[in-house]
Every structure is written in C-alpha cells, then in structure tokens.
Amino acid sequence: MTHQEPVPAQSGIRIDTSKPHPARMYDWFLGGKDNYPVDEEMARQLLTVDARGRDMARVNRAFMHRAIRWLSAHGVRQYLDIGTGIPTEPNLHQIAQGSAPESRIVYCDNDPIVLAHAAALLRSTPEGATEYIQADARDPELILERAGKVLDFSQPIALSMLALLHFVGDEDGAYELVGKLVEQLAPGSYLVLSHVTGDFNPEGAAQAAAMYKARGLTLRPRSRDELAAFFDGLDLVEPGVSLTAEWHPELGEPVPVPGDEPIPGWAAVGRKR
Asked: Is residue 257 within 8 Å of 263, Cβ to Cβ?
C-alpha cells in the first residue's frame, strides 16, 4: 500500500511519530491511511514473523462486531471501550445503536491521532450518546471519572478491551487494572476481551515481543489460562475462552484465513454476578 499522510491532528495535539503506536499499526493492517512510516515499518517487520497480520486484525474486528451484537441482544445499552483505536466503520457505536438506538458509548484511547478523529466517533443517534475520552488504560481512576459523566455505573455496562491487554505487561499491573474497572461495574455488566497468544507459536511470539521491546514498547502474549484469569469471579458466556475467530460464528462475518494454523488469539465474554 502506498503511504498517505494521515489527517492532521487538531491544534495543540502532539503526535509522537518517533516510534510506532499499536493503534496506528492496527490501522495499517486494516488498510487505513492514518499511520506513519514508522508504523508501517514495524507492521511489515511483524509480517515476517507471521504473514497473517492483516488477517489477525480483521478477525479481531469481526469478533468485536459479533460480541456487540450478542451483548445488545442480551439487553446491554451502555459500553465502555478502552483501547478504541482509529475509527473503522462500522465502529462499536454503529453496531450497538443500529439495534438499540438509545445505547450510550464511551470510547477511550491514549493516542492523540484518535482524538483528531473524534468527530467521526461522535455521530450518535439522537436517542443515545457517543463520547470519546483521551486516557491511558493504566489509569483506571481517570477513565472511570470521565466515563461516569456519560455512563450510569449503577446500571449494567459492557467493558471492552479488545486487542489491548497484550500491550500491558504484568509489571504494569494488567490484572489489577482490569480488576479495578470491573469492581466499579454494576451486577449484570460484562467484560469483553480479545488477546494475542503464543500458545501456537511460542518462538514467533517471542520474536514479536523482542521487536516491540527494541522500540521501547511492550508485547505480552498470554496463554489461554492467563486470559481466563482476567475473568476470575465472573461467569463466562458460552463457549468460554475460545479462539477469536470461533466465538459465536453464527453472529456473522466469518474471515477466511489461509493455511491450517489458527489465528493466534483468544477471546471471551464474562458476566458480573
């Protein structure tokens, strides 16, 4: 793909183009143009480890669509999406409000380029609400404070952290931050996660992690059991922790993937009692 200049950021927003950012690399994998040469370079290097990088991004995106359809059908009307990334239609709010126009959605990301696209995120239905906050996933208190201005935490909320937690190391308290967020959710709320794993290719996962580390970034692939541990105390929705591509495929959008090896990612949805 020929690189195109990203949309300029809003005045006063500083975008660090000296090192790659996961949101912009994800954009490149999905065929977007809101990324920089440093992001494309890193993404292409990752393709030398697993040539299915674009398929991984598409499989994860399709899981998000299916999960939101399932949640909406089960009565969820509030969503807190952390690690949103650059908008790709249809986005979460379009899926949710398409079936329940009164749905309220708060997006959260730490990359300023996402803020430059906030207008694209804020096209809510008149009955519902869509808001964007800029904050880091490792600051749950700030996220909860700002999200509380749009969402009613006394009512069920679906907390989604899709393809995010593998960028948060154990030393940064990945399990603790999820626990702090879930603790503030009302009974009947849901946790929705997808996560890269090294279960099928440990050597490749270690190579990818080393590439990230060389650029001052974190990649922490987790096993199936390690992902399941994020749901301790929650009731897993059937089929429990499954391959990302195999979570409720009947809800649509199968992504054909070449080869016999599964896309190396786990996904799950859990309900708070």
From this structure: yes
Instruction: Name the DSSP class of 128.
Output: S
How does strand 190-196 pair with strand 242-243? Answer: unpaired
Whether 147 and 160 have beta carbons less than 8 Å apart is answered as: no
Distance between CA atoms of residues 89 and 153, nearest Å: 27
* Residue 109 near residue 91, CB atoms below 8 Å: no
- The mean per-residue pLDDT over the stretch 235-262 comes to 92
- Banded pLDDT at 4 (limits 50, 70, 90): very low
Percent helix, percent strand, percent coil in the chain, to nearest 5: 40, 15, 45
Contact 271, 235 (CB under 8 A): yes
Compute the residue count for the chain: 273
The whole-number pLDDT of residue 162 equals: 97
pLDDT at 257: 82
Question: How many CB atoms neighbour CB 48 within 10 A?
Answer: 12
pTM of the complete model beyond 0.90: yes
Instruction: Quickly tell me which residue has 């920089």 as its tokens.
Output: 36
